[in-house]
Amino acid sequence: ALEARNGELYQFTNDRLHDLEAVKQTVDFTNFLAEYHMDATGRSDLAGHAWGNFLLTALRLQNDDDIAKAAHIACAWVEAKAKVMPVTTTEHDLIMDDGGSIIATEGDIDDYAPKDPLHAQLELEAHDPHAEVGIHPAAWKAAVEADKLAVLPGSLYTSQLAILKVDGVASAIAEHGMRADGNRKFVLFGNLVEEK
Fold first, then answer.
1. CA-CA-CA-CA torsion sign (87, 88, 93, 98)
2. Can you tell me the mean pLDDT for 67-85?
3. Which of 78, 134, 135, 154 could bond to 159 as cystine, CB 3.0-4.6 Å?
4. pLDDT single digits (tens) 96-115
5. Cα–Cα distances in Å, from 92 out to 28, 59, 122, 166?
6. Which of 6, 163, 157, 169 is nearest to 95 (CA)?
7. CB-based contacts of 154: which residues, under 8 Å, 6+ apart?
8. What is the pTM of this model?
9. Which residues are 148's β-sheet partners?
10. 8 A C-beta contact, residue 58 and residue 13
């Protein structure tokens, strides 16, 4: 949804990037990007989004729509010690089918209480009908070669399960577990409290 109006969003975000430079000098900037949510007065479609989403979108638009490059630049900007890469670079929508009820945006899925949680289905629908929502090669390599894999706490349907729906993620996890040293771990962290 954030990319739907690229030009408008690009201008909206760029107008505020100088504010981020000032913020960077006074607070824990990485936490700010993750936790600060937009107060977009008069822009209900943007209100509530994390600043980090805006930063990544602006960097992506400045770098030929390359989300991997945008993530690399953002990591350097916040001086991240870890390497961050997208699981997939295929443009897609997350869709939930709850017994015939179709919920079609991340925000709506987060706000929705499935009637049948055990049978509600998630699908990743590529914007290009001929494309596959597949794992990025760098993410595949990193997952297979890592000592430990962890899926961190987040929204069950739109974060934790969604990442596992990307084609190739399950096989990367399986390949990771079959590495010769036998000391590989995969950990799925659950949320300790309800989101709402």
1. negative
2. 80
3. 154
4. 999 899 998 887 888 888 88
5. 32, 19, 13, 10
6. 157
7. 160, 191
8. 0.70
9. 185
10. yes
